[in-house]
Design brief:
The protein is mainly α. The protein contains 13 helices and 2 strands; from the N terminus they run αααααααβαααααβα. It has a two-stranded antiparallel sheet with strand order 1-2. α4 runs antiparallel to α8, α5 packs antiparallel against α12 and α9 packs antiparallel against α10. The radius of gyration is 19 Å and the shape is globular.
């Protein structure tokens, strides 16, 4: 398969992951009405494990002791630490502000990929990432927000950004592991081990998650969060960045706050204004710019 074809598949996988991630806050909001953030996140990953467990059983590859350490560190950062910090931050701020903070992730990932790996973006690449993030800001800030008792807070916003910085380690460590192992194995082993760590913490701090008294609506939201927003997205994202540079794939992360903010304002009765059209145009232009230019960095083993 040609390099161009592989890259197209990689970009498509990252775009799908970004779109599915964008529904996470919406489904999470439904479940949070009936349970604590700790229990909601744990149920989300339990449903994800149901989907990924068969892949772990059928994709058995030998990992060296050093690789196991890397996998466990990545899982610890990417699942219990990132998600618990993120949803605690969400409980202290508004959905619109949380979505805006998530819009900074492409720049964080672009910087991380250039600092910690051999990837490089030229001036046009950086302008595309910044323009994409500016588009997200216009979409979120262009809405007319409904009045609520819980307003935005600096602590909540900063916790969201902190969770994004933590997720950078998860993404880059996974990309390093995928240089020698399949994205399917890294995803399945990573989510399963991370869920075990999360379960140990949540059970010790908050006790067993609720089973009785949870509505069918909440169960559907939890299942959707686990299957669509976790299992499918992580599999697609890891498969995508296995084929394309992480710094270029970063632009597709802006689909998450774009869609998430839209669902959020719809859920809260807000309205998107004309800035949304400008913001959407910036995001689309950035995506086209990054995905149609010749690749500067080709992942090792891409043609194998």
């Amino acid at each position: 398969m040609s390099v161009a074809r592989l890259q197209a598949l990689g970009y498509g996988a990252c775009a799908l992951a970004g779109a599915l991630w964008g529904t996470g806050f919406y489904f999470g909001k439904i479940a949070l009405a009936e349970m604590s953030p700790n229990h909601m996140v744990l149920w989300r990953f339990i449903f994800a494990c149901v989907v990924l467990a068969p892949f772990a059983l059928t994709h058995r590859e030998r990992l060296a002791a050093k690789e196991w350490r890397t996998l466990l560190i990545a899982s610890f950062l990417g699942i219990p630490v990132q998600f618990l910090v993120q949803f605690y931050g969400l409980s202290l701020t508004t959905v619109s502000h949380a979505s805006l903070m998530v819009g900074t992730m492409p720049v964080i990932l672009g910087v991380g990929a250039t600092v910690f790996t051999k990837e490089r973006l030229d001036r046009i690449g950086w302008l595309a990432l910044i323009g994409s993030t500016a588009g997200v800001s216009l979409i979120v800030l262009g809405g007319t927000h409904a009045t609520s008792k819980q307003g935005p807070s600096l602590l909540g916003d900063m916790l969201i950004v902190c969770a994004l910085v933590i997720s950078l380690g998860w993404i880059l460590l996974n990309k390093h592991l995928m240089e020698k192992h399949s994205p399917t194995l890294v995803t399945a082993y990573g989510v399963l081990s991370g869920t075990v760590m999360m379960a140990a913490y949540v059970l010790a701090v908050s006790g067993p998650p609720p089973v009785h008294g949870v509505s069918a609506k909440a169960w559907v939201a939890l299942a959707a969060s686990g299957v669509l927003c976790t299992a499918c997205t992580t599999m697609r994202w890891n498969g995508g960045i296995h084929r394309v540079p992480a710094s270029r794939a970063a632009v597709f992360l802006n689909i998450e706050p774009m869609l998430g903010s839209y669902l959020g304002v719809q859920l809260l009765g807000d309205r998107l204004g004309p800035f949304a059209w400008v913001g959407g145009g910036l995001i689309l232009a950035a995506a086209v710019t990054l995905t149609t230019r010749p690749a500067q960095v080709i992942a090792e083993g891409l043609l194998e």
